[in-house]
Amino acid sequence: MMVAMPVDPVAVLYGIAVLGFAVGTYIGWRLLTDDPDLAERGAFKYLLLIPTVAGVSYVVMFFDIGTVTVGEQTLVVPRYVDWVITTPVLVGYIGYVATAPRKWIVGLVVADALMIVTGGIATITTGLSQWIFLGASGLGHASLLGVLYFVLPRFVPDDPTRKGLFKLLQNHVGLLWLAYPTVWLFGPASLGLMSGVGLSLIIAYLDVVAKTPYLYFIWGNTKAFELDESVEADDADATAEDAPGGSPAV
Questions:
Q1: Single pTM value for the model
Q2: For the structural domain made of 9-218, what CATH number should be given?
């Protein structure tokens, strides 16, 4: 008589997540190869980092590698390594779509890094220290949302396709990311109203939903970057007209 082995729901979902990120990697590859000129204007090469790094991190977590215990708390290190690499790309690219100045894109990345690092520290601390780091993480998150919703819209070109893509990415990140601190607060490292298994399942789901559809939205709206081609053409014509004794080439 065969004895059925218990199924680890976290391992199953991690395996599904890897497949989800494989789809995201395929989409990233298509962005790079469908139209190389458009890929250059859209800076799509950076987007490939998102599903690739996330997929590798979930492979590592599938084999239960990288979890460390500090006191009574545990930290899934690959998850935070994934986030500290991929989430700056997610938010920084929204700034790129908005054509925001470099200082605001850097500000987004710094706020994001503050949110991730201090949130990780809050996971393995207790008492007052935990709430101090949680507050710092919340400050980073609030700063990120402030730039995302009140600063970046000022720089978006007056083009319907670019505005549409910006709004889609802005809300996808801005609204979905509100779920992460909410779930964490109910988890074992905070209020303890949710088991570690439940927390892992929800976060894995959120990670896939946050990253693979993000790339799909860009893949379906690459026309938004055709604006850059017309701007470059106009700049070239203006340069030719300004050249001594010159006129635009026909």
A1: 0.85
A2: 1.20.1070.10
